[in-house]
Amino acid sequence: MEEILQHIQEVLGVPAFLINHCTFLPEYIKDALITSINFIPWLYVLYYGIELLERFFLTRINVFIRLIQKLGPLFGVGITVIPECGYQVIASTFYSRKMISRGTLLAFYISCSDDALPLLFLDFSKALVIIPIIVIKIIVGIIVAYSVDIVDTIIHRRIKPVEDINAINTDLNEPACCHHRIQTKENPAYWWMHPLTHTFNMFMFTFLSLALINCVVLGFGSVENLASFLMIDTPYQLVGTALLGLVSNCVTSVFLAIAYVKGIIGFPALISGLVSVTGLGLFTLVKRNQNSNDNTIITIILVAAAIITGLFVYYNLAVVNMIKDLFIK
After folding, report:
1. What's the pLDDT score for residue 39?
2. How far is 84 from 41, CA to CA, in rounded Å?
3. What is the DSSP track for 150-186?
4. Residue 200 CA from chain centroid, whole number
5. What is the pLDDT of residues 48-73, one digit of tens each?
6. pTM for the whole thing?
7. In angstroms, rounded to a whole number, what is the distance separating the alpha carbons of residues 200 and 194?
8. Sign of torsion, CA 145 171 177 288?
C-alpha cells in the first residue's frame, strides 16, 4: 500500500517538476498551475459521481418532480448539498412553469454552493469549514423557504401544479452548464465527457482565479495587506460577497472559495457569498420567468438572507466552531 501511495505521489509530482523548470514563467503563475493541475484527478472522480446521480434523476424525471412536490424545500436543501449548478437550473425551470413554490426555489438557491466546496480542499487546514457551511446553509434554506411559502399562502399566492413532462423534457434539452444539454440519456458519451468537460472548466477557473489572486497579492506585498484592504474583519466585506454571489456564473463560487483558502476573505464573507450564489440558477430564472417583479423579489430575498446569515456568523463565530467540533468528534 505504501508503495502504491509513493508511486501516486511521484506521478503527481511530475507536473510540478516540469513547471518549476519553466524559467520563463513567473512564480505566481507556476504556483497557480501546479495547484490546479494536481487537483484535476480528484475533481474528475467527484464530477463523474455527480453525473451518475444526475442521470438517475433525469432519466426518471417524473420521480424527480414527485419528490420536489411532496417534500418541497426539504428535497431542495437535501439535493443541492451536491456541488453542481444543474439542480438550480432545473429548479428555475420548474418554477417558471409553476411546478414548485417560491420557497422551494429559494431552498434550492440558498443551500447550493455550486463548485466551491471541492475547492476548499486546496488547503486541508481550512477544508473542515465545509461541515458548518453545509449545516448553516441547510438551516437557512429551510427557514427562508417555509417562511416565504407561509407568507405566499397568507396573501393567497398559490401555485397551480403543472405536469407537462414533454414541455419539461424540451426545457432540459437546452444548453446549460458547460454548454452541454442537461438531459442526455440518449447520448452515453456524456457519461464520461461532461465530467471531463466540467473538470477542464474548473481547472481553468481555478488556475485563472489563483493566478489573479497571486498577482494581486504580489502587488500588495502580502496576503495580510490585501486582506486588510478588502476589510477582512469587518461586516462590509460580507455585504460585498453577498452581492458578488449574484453574478450568475460558475466562476463566482470558485473565486469565493479560493479567496477564502488564500486568506483574503473571512468565513462570514464566504458563507454570505455562498448563500447568494446560484450558479446559473438566476440566469435561467430571468430567462424563463417573464414576471420581472417576481424575479426582483426573489433576488432581494436571496441577498437579504445572505447578508443576515453573514452577520449572524460574524457575531457568533463560536457557534460555527461548536458545529465543526460536534461533527469532528
Report:
1. 79
2. 17
3. HHHHHTT--------HHHHHHHHTSB-GGG-BS--TT
4. 17
5. 777 776 666 666 666 667 777 677 78
6. 0.80
7. 10
8. negative
